[in-house]
Design a protein that fits this description.
The complex is a heterodimer of chains A (496) and B (283).
Chain A lengths: L2 E10 L8 H10 L12 E5 L11 H4 L3 E4 L2 E4 L6 H4 L10 H4 L3 E3 L2 H5 L11 E3 L36 H8 L7 E5 L8 H5 L5 E3 L6 E3 L9 H5 L5 E4 L4 E4 L4 H4 L6 H5 L5 E9 L3 H5 L6 H8 E2 L4 H9 L4 H9 L1 H8 L16 E4 L7 E4 L2 E4 L15 H8 L5 H21 L5 H10 L4 H12 L3 H4 L7 H8 L22
Parallel strand pairs in A: 1-14
Antiparallel strand pairs in A: 1-12, 2-7, 3-4, 5-6, 8-9, 10-11, 12-13, 15-16
Chain B lengths: L3 H33 L19 H4 L2 H9 L1 H7 L2 H9 L13 H16 L17 H12 L35 H4 L3 H9 L6 H5 L6 H16 L5 H26 L8 H12 L1
Helix pairs in contact in B: 1-6, 3-4, 3-6, 7-11, 9-11
The chains are: A alpha+beta (496), B mainly alpha (283).
Chain lengths: 496, 283
C-alpha cells in the first residue's frame, strides 16, 4: 500500500443555479491576462448542451483520454510512434472557433462619438486581432438553451437515444436542462501529464494538484489534445500551456479556491482523500461497468489504523490525516455513494465528483391543459424529465446503476424531511423509501445537514500545507537576514 | 670490436634495403604517373593533350626537364621559345603545377620514363581505341555503367550519382558535377577521353578512382556511349526543365493528397459544421 493524499472536490449539481459567479471569480483572478482571454479554467455548461469547447466530450473528434487496448492503457491522442508523424502538426487540437473568439466592447465610442441622430453604441472588438467582430459564439453560448437544435440536440451524451427520446427532450413542458460547472479534475491518472513530451506537467506530491511548469513547457500542446475534459489551455501570448491550479496559493494560506469561495449555491465541497497509489493502473484498466466501484475502492478509509500507519510512513502529516477524517468529500463519495465522477470511461480517474441532479416530473399537454404524468410529489426517478440514460452516460460510463442509487437516495432524503417538517407523507412510506434507497434515518439526516445547513468549515476542510517548512527545503530562510529593504535589480554604484 | 660475420650481415642488409628502396621509388613514380600525368600524356602512345613522352630525355636536357616538370608555370610565364612551341602544339592547353611535385620526384619520374621508353610497349602507351564504329552492345553497356546498373569491376562509384548525361532516366543524373552529354567533344575524341578515364585527374575524381581504376573494357564502353550522346541531336534544355517542373508539381499534389489521407481524421472544426447543418435543416 502506497498511501498518498489528494485534494478532492464534490459539486452538488442539484444545488447549482447556473449563475457563473465561479467562472467570473476565476477569470478575475487568473485569466484576464493577454493570451488567456479565451480560457475559462472554471466554466458552467448547460446540459443537455455541447459545452466548451464545443462537443468536448466527443473523443472521436478530440481524441482525449485513455483507451484500453489489448490489456494496455494507451493515450488516444499520442504515442511514441504517433508523435513522429504529428511532430509539426497536432491533428486533434481544438481551434479558436471551437472555444470562441474572445472579445470586448468599444466603450470609448460611447464617450467620443461625434454628435448625431442616434445613440452611440459600443461595438464588439476581438481581443485577438483588435478588429470589429460579429459575435456568433461564446463559452456559454447555449446558456439556459435547453432544447436548442444546434447545441442541446448535439450533446454527445444523447448518443444511443432514439429519435423519439430526443424529440421528447425538446418538447414543450418536457424541456429540461441542468447546470454542469467544470474545473480541472486533478485526475489520479492524468492524460495531460502522460502526454507531455517536455516533462513540464506534474502532479504535486503533497496534494495531487496537477500543474504545468511554466519554465519547462515547450508549447507542444500535447496536453491540450490529451485532456479529455479539455481543461488545459494554450496561452498564445507566452507560448505556454496553462490550467486550473486549484488556487493553490489560496489553499496554502488556508483559503478555499476562488470558485469554491464565491459559490452562491454553496454547491462545492473540498477535502482530502487518502488513496492507494499502487493500484492506479489496475483501477484505470477496469471494465466500464466496474470503473466506478474500482475508483471508489482506491479511496482509503482514513480511520483504518493500517492506512494511518501507511500515510505516516509516506510522510503525510498527522494534521493532513485528521483533515482526511473530516473530509466532506469522503462522505459524499465513499460513505454515501452519492457523488459520481464525470465520464470515468475516459479512464483518467477524475478526483472531482458530482452529485447528479434531480429533475422535474414529466408533463403532458392536452389542448390547453397541462397535466403531470405523476401525481406523486416525489415521483419515481424514471418519471423524471431527464432520461436516466443521459445521466448514465455522463456519470456512469453508460451504466445507470450507480446514478439510480444516488438519485434514489436523494429522493429518500427529501421524503424523510417532508415527513418530518410537513407531515403529509406517512412514516411507512418514508421507511420503505429509506429501505429502497439502502439508507438509514441517521445517514439521511447527515446528508440533509451537509446539503442544506452546511457552513464554510463543513464544506471546505483544507489541511495545513506547512509552506513555511516546505520552503526551508529549497531556500535558506536566513539568507536575507541582516539585509534590509527590497533589494536591488541593479546594485547602486558610487559617482555619477 | 665488431665481428666479421656481423659486418658482412650488415652489408647484405644495407644492400637489400637499398635495392628494395630503389624498387619502391620506381613503383611510386609509376603510381604517381598513373594518377597525375596519364590523363594528358602517353609513353609511346602518341600525342594526347600533351606530347608523347617517349624518349623525351633524348630530346631535351634532363636537368632542364627536371626543373620544368617541378614548376611548369614559371617556364610558361618566362617566355622560353621551346615552351611557347609546346603550348602552340597543345592548342593553348598548358601544363599545370601538379600537386605534390618537387625536383626529387620529377627526377624519379624522368628516370621511370627513360626505363619505360626502352620497353617495346610501355604500360603507359595509352588505350588505343580504333576508328571503327562501336557495337550496340558496347553502347548499351556504357549506359548501364553510367546508371550504375552494371557495377565497375574495381568498385568505383556509378557516374550518375554526380553526373547527368543526356537526361538519362526520368529524374536525370546528379547535378554535383558537369553534364557529360558533350564531354566527348570537349575532350576532342576517343583517344583523349579514354586516356583521361584511365586516370581521372580532377581533384574530385582522383581520390575516387586512384585505387579503383576502370578496366579498359569499361572505358571503351563508356567512350562508346558518350560518343553516341555527343553525336545525337540534342533535346533543348527548356523541355527538360518544363518536364521537371511538372513532375515537381505532380509530386507536390500527390504529397498533399497523401498527407490529407494520413491525417484524414484530424479535427476540422466542430462548432461551424453544427451550425451549418442546422441551417441546412431549416431550408
Amino acid at each position: 500500500m502506497d498511501v498518498r493524499s489528494q485534494i478532492s472536490m464534490v459539486f452538488h449539481l442539484d444545488k447549482c443555479i447556473g449563475c457563473h459567479t465561479c467562472s467570473i471569480a476565476c477569470k478575475n483572478i487568473w485569466t484576464d491576462r493577454k493570451g488567456t482571454e479565451y480560457m475559462w479554467w472554471n466554466n458552467v455548461e448547460t446540459k443537455p448542451g455541447t459545452g466548451y469547447p464545443t462537443r468536448w466530450e466527443d473523443q472521436e473528434k478530440y481524441s482525449g483520454g485513455w483507451e484500453l487496448k489489448g490489456g494496455r492503457l494507451e493515450l488516444r491522442s499520442t504515442s511514441k510512434s504517433k508523435i513522429v508523424f504529428n511532430i509539426f502538426h497536432n491533428p486533434h487540437m481544438p481551434s479558436m472557433d471551437d472555444y470562441y473568439e474572445p472579445w470586448t466592447y468599444d466603450y470609448g465610442n460611447l464617450f467620443n462619438a461625434p454628435e448625431g441622430c442616434d445613440q452611440p453604441t459600443a461595438k464588439p472588438i476581438s481581443l485577438v486581432n483588435g478588429k470589429y467582430l460579429d459575435i456568433d459564439a461564446g463559452p456559454n453560448w447555449d446558456d439556459d438553451l435547453g432544447g436548442s437544435r444546434v447545441y442541446a440536440a448535439n450533446d454527445p451524451n444523447l448518443e444511443g437515444m432514439n429519435e423519439e427520446q430526443r424529440a421528447q427532450l425538446a418538447a414543450v413542458e418536457r424541456l429540461v436542462m441542468f447546470y454542469f460547472p467544470r474545473i480541472c479534475n486533478h485526475c489520479l491518472n492524468p492524460a495531460c501529464v502522460a502526454a507531455c513530451p517536455s516533462g513540464a506537467m506534474y502532479k504535486r506530491g503533497e496534494d495531487g494538484i496537477v500543474l504545468v511548469d511554466q519554465k519547462r513547457c515547450r508549447a507542444w500542446r500535447a496536453c491540450v489534445a490529451a485532456c479529455p475534459y479539455k481543461k488545459v489551455f494554450y496561452n498564445w501570448q507566452t507560448g505556454k500551456s496553462e490550467k486550473c491550479i486549484l488556487c493553490f496559493p489560496r489553499l496554502e494560506t488556508g483559503q478555499a479556491p476562488a470558485c469554491f469561495h464565491s459559490c452562491v449555491g454553496r454547491i462545492r465541497y473540498l477535502g482530502i482523500l487518502l488513496y492507494d497509489a499502487e493500484r492506479i493502473e489496475e483501477i484505470a484498466k477496469s471494465s466500464d461497468e466496474n470503473l466506478i466501484d474500482a475508483h471508489r475502492s482506491i479511496i482509503l478509509d482514513p480511520y483504518d489504523p493500517q492506512v494511518i500507519e501507511g500515510a505516516r510512513a509516506n510522510g503525510i502529516h498527522d494534521s493532513v490525516i485528521e483533515a482526511a477524517q473530516k473530509s466532506p468529500v469522503y462522505l459524499w463519495v465513499k460513505l454515501w455513494k452519492l457523488a459520481l465522477p464525470p465520464h470515468i470511461e475516459f479512464r483518467t480517474l477524475p478526483m472531482l465528483f458530482y452529485v447528479p441532479p434531480m429533475s422535474p416530473v414529466m408533463a403532458q399537454k392536452d389542448g390547453d391543459i397541462i397535466s403531470h404524468t405523476s401525481d406523486d410529489l416525489f415521483h419515481d426517478i424514471d418519471q423524471a424529465r431527464l432520461p436516466m440514460q443521459y445521466l448514465a452516460r455522463l456519470f456512469g460510463a453508460g451504466h445507470d446503476g450507480k446514478v439510480r442509487y444516488a438519485l434514489r437516495k436523494q429522493k429518500a432524503v427529501r421524503a424523510y424531511r417532508r415527513w418530518l417538517t410537513v407531515g403529509d407523507i406517512s412514516e411507512a412510506t418514508v421507511d420503505r423509501m429509506l429501505r429502497e434507497a439502502d439508507t438509514t434515518r441517521d445517514e439521511v439526516e447527515a446528508i440533509y445537514r451537509l446539503t442544506s445547513l452546511c457552513t464554510f468549515e463543513d464544506r471546505f476542510v483544507i489541511p495545513p500545507m506547512y509552506r513555511e517548512e516546505a520552503i526551508e527545503m529549497l531556500q535558506d530562510p536566513m539568507e536575507a537576514k541582516q539585509s534590509a529593504g527590497f533589494g536591488f535589480m541593479e546594485g547602486p554604484s558610487r559617482g555619477l | 670490436m665488431m665481428s666479421n660475420t656481423y659486418r658482412r650481415a650488415l652489408l647484405v642488409a644495407a644492400t637489400v634495403t637499398l635495392i628494395t628502396a630503389s624498387a619502391r621509388a620506381a613503383d611510386e613514380a609509376a603510381t604517381y604517373f598513373r594518377q597525375n600525368c596519364m590523363s594528358c600524356h602517353t609513353i609511346g602512345g602518341g600525342r594526347l593533350v600533351g606530347p608523347d613522352l617517349k624518349d623525351v630525355t633524348q630530346r631535351r636536357d634532363k636537368g632542364w626537364l627536371q626543373k620544368f616538370v617541378a614548376n611548369p608555370k614559371s617556364y610558361l610565364d618566362g617566355g622560353d621559345p621551346y615552351v611557347a612551341k609546346l603550348k602552340e602544339d597543345a592548342r593553348g592547353a598548358v601544363m599545370p603545377n601538379i600537386a605534390g611535385i618537387d625536383e626529387a620526384r620529377a627526377l624519379a619520374l624522368l628516370e621511370m620514363i627513360e626505363r619505360e621508353s626502352k620497353l617495346p610497349k610501355s604500360q603507359f602507351a595509352g588505350l588505343n581505341i580504333g576508328d571503327q564504329p562501336f557495337t550496340p552492345s558496347d553502347i548499351a553497356n556504357g549506359r548501364a555503367i553510367i546508371l550504375g546498373e552494371k557495377h565497375l569491376a574495381n568498385g568505383g562509384p556509378a557516374c550518375v550519382s554526380c553526373h547527368s548525361v543526356d537526361n538519362i532516366s526520368i529524374l536525370g543524373g546528379g547535378k554535383l558535377a558537369p553534364d557529360l552529354t558533350k564531354v566527348f567533344e570537349r575532350m576532342r575524341g576517343r583517344k583523349n577521353l579514354a586516356s583521361w578515364l584511365q586516370a581521372p585527374a580532377t581533384p574530385t575524381m582522383r581520390p575516387l578512382f586512384a585505387n579503383q581504376s576502370m578496366t579498359n573494357d569499361e572505358i571503351t564502353q563508356l567512350v562508346a556511349y558518350l560518343e553516341t550522346t555527343a553525336r545525337k541531336p540534342q533535346q533543348t534544355g527548356d523541355t527538360a526543365t518544363l518536364s521537371f517542373f511538372f513532375l515537381g508539381l505532380g509530386g507536390c499534389v500527390l504529397g498533399f493528397i497523401g498527407a490529407d489521407t494520413v491525417w484524414r481524421k484530424r479535427l476540422r472544426g466542430v462548432r461551424k459544421p453544427l451550425i451549418e447543418e442546422a441551417r441546412r435543416g431549416d431550408r
